[in-house]
């Protein structure tokens, strides 16, 4: 599925070998890792087979991270220096299945993705009345936040962005100003309308009752601007990183001429967010 290609669901676990003493833990708490499941090491992602509730067979990759794996050349979500704790799961419909096998905290389920995967996280799941109640936070990277059903009369700065998800909802967004696939300024594409990124982010800020004002910080000699919405305990509930000169990619120092690593910022944002508040 193209929409899932760059999608990673992060399931935060506390002690895979012990009982998780929180109110919303899963059935897998207290169970040891299944035979054959490995942790860490390059290429150590585990291929897991299961059957969905509709009876469809599915296969997904599960990585319990300590080091980098070649399956994550873009995000490096299994890089121990970036993400020392969260198991990383590659698609499909697997959250319920994993909860029966591993000790997870249902109040700390996070979703991030790039391009269509970013849209799946920050537009589809976050705006779904059911799914948004099962996810603590999302992060979109170079997201394709399509709206409407036609390119006609596309107005990127004002296009309506309907959303039926829960609020408040923590949203983090990264986008390069030189993105030639999903332009920062938005516009007509593939028979739909892409909002400009400031409009998409501000809509989330308003939805989160933070208003349209923000605090901007110039980082890396002006190469990155961070926009933070909200104040006090709500500060950063909606956050956007505008990255100058970077194209359609997952920002990573050295890999794509970016001067910012998105992954550790995403993990830090997720670690602050749960259903008790950011």
Automatic annotation (TrEMBL):
Under the heading InterPro entries, the entry gives: AB_hydrolase_fold (IPR029058), FaeB/C/D (IPR043595)
- Renumbered to this chain, the signal peptide range is 1-25
Keyword annotations for this protein? Answer: Carbohydrate metabolism, Hydrolase, Polysaccharide degradation, Secreted, Signal, Xylan degradation
Q: What is its main location?
A: secreted
- What GO cellular component entries does it have? extracellular region
What Gene Ontology biological process does one annotation of this record name?
xylan catabolic process
> Molecular function terms in GO for this entry?
feruloyl esterase activity
What is the recorded name of this protein? feruloyl esterase
- State the organism named in the record: Cryoendolithus antarcticus
